[in-house]
Specification:
There is one protein chain. This protein has 169 residues and is mainly α. It has a domain of 95 residues. The chain is 79% helix and 0% strand. The longest helix has 31 residues. Belongs to the sigma-70 factor family. ECF subfamily.
């Protein structure tokens, strides 16, 4: 029996045929664009293919919508980061010509940093940003947030450890 004839393949094919049109229509409503909806519907089914056995899905539309919502959020977040970066470039005194390769690398880096910060706890993220981007000392951070220097150190260690783990991956 070939892999195309396997029960898992048949279950995924059935899931796709039963719900792809609905998912793409649902995404079109969220995104207002048929092309982006088609891309994200495809990406949603790729996630299902990689992540799980289609037979184990009890509520297919809810499951697919949950995956698709995450992909929509990622797309909007990436677009916001890209807009902010382009606005920053446009505000520079001399327009900078950026190659498509450099642009892709910078955007991927910014998205990775955004994900890393989003994965931190709220307090650790706030302390990390105050230390790294505003250059505040432990005492200044503690005073601003109304917490002890020990608490600042604990959260900063947690944030930096998180960064090291992610960079090692």
């Amino acid at each position: 029996m070939s892999s195309a004839d396997s029960p898992a393949h048949q279950q995924l094919a059935t899931l796709y045929s039963d719900h792809h049109g609905w998912l793409q229509s649902w995404l079109r409503g969220k995104l207002g664009n048929a092309g982006d909806a088609a891309d994200l519907a495809h990406d949603t089914f790729l996630r299902v293919l990689v992540a799980r056995n289609a037979a184990a899905i009890q509520q297919p539309r809810e499951y697919l919508a949950t995956i698709a919502r995450g992909l929509v959020t990622d797309r909007f977040r990436r677009q916001a980061i890209e807009r902010a970066w382009l606005e920053t470039l446009a505000a520079q005194p001399e327009p900078q010509a950026v190659s498509p390769e450099t642009r892709a690398i910078v955007l991927e880096t910014l998205v990775a940093i955004d994900r890393m910060l989003d994965d931190m706890g709220t307090r650790a993220r706030e302390i990390f940003m105050l230390a790294q981007f505003e250059g505040l000392t432990y005492a200044q951070i503690g005073a601003r947030l109304g917490i002890s220097i020990t608490t600042v150190k604990k959260h900063l260690v947690r944030a930096l450890t998180h960064c090291l783990i992610l960079s090692a991956e």
